[in-house]
Amino acid sequence: MKVSKKLFKPYLYLIFTLGTAISIYYVANIKSYAFPLVSIFFMMVTVISEVFDYDGEANDDELSFSLSISNIFFLILMFNAIIAITSNIIAFLIKGLKLKMEGRYNKILNIKTMFNISQTTIIIFITEFLSKKLDIDLISSRDILKLAILILIFDVLNRLIVSLVISFHSGKLFLEAFKFKMFILYNYYSIILTFALIFSYKGYGLLGATIVYLMYIPFQIVTFRYTKLKEKERELFKDRLSGAYNYRYLEALINSKISKKEQFAICMMDFNNLKYINDNFGHVTGNQLIEFFAKVVNSAIDRNTVFCRYGGDEFCLIHSDYDELKLFINSINELLKTRFIETNGTKIYTSVSSGLYKYTGEEVDFNFIIDKVDRAMYKSKHKKGSEIVEAF
């Protein structure tokens, strides 16, 4: 579903304005809040844990454990919202400095940092307001349920605000933040840790909550390092230009399936006009065409299909079901008839030649399969169309 990119800047300004207005409100009413020394200690602990928080992208089967929600709820319910907001501002600024030193940010206080500070400030304000309205004192089981629901509301609001800014920036509705498995796991850990912090502090004071942090912060650091390692592993198997898996991954995947005698279908696709595009429009346009093709495939691909770049303008698709893969290739061919890139006012269309092969458990190797599907693809290319040629 497409959304208007024109809403991107107004949406950013709205979030910035609301975040700033809320900050001014808290500063104006600062005298009505208490700041015990212990609250400053936990603010520092929160900053440390937030700085170590993971800021990358986790896979569906990975959980990068975060203390963010638990930190915020602990500070709001045990102290006040100003402590929670201040700790998050400091943490985001330190993160910005860290990323600038790594060369990932041009400056510390950039748009992303300002957006993160503003959105967190807004959600903290809403959380404090709702917690007062619900009168949560954590004495009865009903209050515990209220807190669990409030944590879920907090996370949904956070994901919604982020999803909207990505949607307005990209022009396409983005709902990746609402992956059910990750949502449930993340909030399960957040609820458990929030209860642990609050009840340990209520029962044993500074010592109790400190012990909980000493248990969980090392766990957070370990998951952070693990997820960063998995991220680097993914980068090794990704093609930078297209975003598809690379030759190394393709070879490893096929060899794995052969060793298990696991049936699969593979298709090799090759552009019919890339040389013409490179010669007449330049290699930059040729690269844009490769990126465009990858986006077309990724817009239609399902979780059971693996998309790889074999090399140059050759791509491979792997699926467990031969007929389903054939249907998918036909759908890609139809999409390419209606989509194009534009350069200097010229619309550039492309089409692909496709070869298809089915592995059924026979004693062959990677090179044999690639040779089969490659020959089939070139037969398709000689027919000068988008007809799929099947290898036998």
TrEMBL record:
GO molecular function terms listed in the Swiss-Prot or TrEMBL record: diguanylate cyclase activity
PROSITE patterns for the chain: GGDEF
Keyword Transmembrane: yes
Keywords: Membrane, Nucleotidyltransferase, Transferase, Transmembrane, Transmembrane helix
EC number: 2.7.7.65
InterPro entries: Diguanylate_Cyclase, GGDEF_dom, Nucleotide_cyclase, Rev_trsase/Diguanyl_cyclase
Membrane spanning residue stretches: 12-28, 33-52, 72-97, 109-127, 147-168, 180-199, 205-224
SMART domains: GGDEF
Protein name per its UniProtKB record: Putative diguanylate cyclase YfiN
Provenance organism: Caloramator mitchellensis
Lineage of source species: Bacteria, Bacillati, Bacillota, Clostridia, Eubacteriales
Gene: yfiN
